[in-house]
Specification:
The protein is α/β, with parallel strands linked by helices. The chain has two domains: 172 residues, Rossmann fold (3-Layer(aba) Sandwich), CATH 3.40.50; 92 residues, Pantoate-beta-alanine ligase, C-terminal domain (Pantoate--beta-alanine Ligase, Chain: A,domain 2, 2-Layer Sandwich), CATH 3.30.1300. Helix content is 39%, strand content 20%. β5, α8 and β6 form a beta-alpha-beta unit. The model has no long low-confidence stretch (mean pLDDT 98). The structure holds adenosine monophosphate (AMP).
């Protein structure tokens, strides 16, 4: 496994491989790796010749400076996870490597940018697309893998790729969960024992909606799911929605072919998100 810190070194490693028609995959991450990240690497390996995993805690996508500061950075653990997963190249640039000079970034990501996470984390998807564009330019991948865990993020990246007409395939990969249903996340490390128990209500509420999707109306499903969450101590709901999976607008009559339930809540001091595809 090669560990690379600069864009120049990455390009000189990857460009000759591209010339020999090797298919290059990128798995962007912010580190603090868990089985969810590893699953992306495993799926990437099935579809590409060379798998590049980037680890970069991108400052421009954090709306809360404290969240950025306390973001976990367990480097040795991450290296071992990637080595064990059979990752070929780790790209781990510094902040100045990715942002050598102050820069403006604003692109049109469509109206869904301002819904859900976009409403609670203003400017988040501008920061996400800014860094992913830089990573795409540095790696020049044929295909890039993202988790459905960040459902809205996948939509925003697809919109960014369309905006710049980049010839990169974007693949959304299933959510990996703990045995009890909690979606794996680098932020779970911040949960206290009590938080960890309370956090289960998020996947339980989503599962309730999934299991009762055909028998209950959308308002009934929402009412029950929100009740479950609001009755759980230490959990403060930001949103629970049943939405059109393409526009993220609320789905009222189950008419669309692509419907997803999405939730975000603060559990103790930690903000968690999760979702389940209903159709
Ligand atoms: P992050 O390091 O949190 O930015 O995540 C890097 C990538 O891993 C993103 O595409 C996430 O959607 C994905 N990811 C995070 N958690 C999971 C999970 N539990 N299952 C599958 N993919 C995940």
């Amino acid at each position: 496994m090669k560990v690379i810190n600069t864009i120049a070194a990455l390009k000189s490693l990857l460009e000759p491989l591209k010339l020999t028609q090797q298919k290059i995959a990128l798995v962007p991450t912010m580190g603090a790796l868990h089985k969810g990240h590893v699953s992306l690497i495993k799926i990437a390996q099935l579809q590409a010749d060379v798998v590049v995993c980037s680890i970069f805690v991108n400052p421009t996508q954090f709306t809360d400076p404290k969240d950025l500061e306390k973001y976990p950075r367990p480097l040795e653990h991450d290296m071992k996870m990637l080595e064990d997963a059979g990752c070929n190249v780790v790209f781990m640039p510094s902040v100045t490597e990715m942002y050598p000079a102050p820069e403006e970034w604003h692109i049109d990501l469509g109206p869904a940018e301002f819904l859900l996470e976009g409403e609670f984390r203003r400017g988040h998807y501008q920061g996400v697309t800014q860094i992913v564009k830089k990573l795409f330019d540095a790696v020049n991948p044929d295909v890039a893998f993202f988790g459905q865990k960040d459902f809205q993020q996948v939509l925003m990246i697809k919109n960014m790729v369309a905006h710049f007409e980049m010839p990169i395939q974007i693949v959304s990969c299933p959510i990996i969960r703990e045995d009890d249903g909690l979606a794996m996340s680098s932020r779970n490390i911040h949960l206290t024992e009590a938080d960890r128990k309370n956090a289960l209500v998020l996947s339980q509420a989503l599962l309730f909606v999934k299991n009762n999707f055909s028998s209950l109306s959308v308002p009934q499903l929402l009412e029950e799911a929100k009740k479950l969450i609001n009755e759980t101590p230490g959990v403060e709901l930001d949103y629970f929605t049943i939405a059109n999976g393409e526009t993220l607008l609320p789905e009222v009559d189950k008419s669309h072919h692509d419907i997803v339930a999405l939730v975000a809540a603060k559990v103790g001091q930690t903000r968690l998100i999760d979702n389940m595809i209903l159709r």
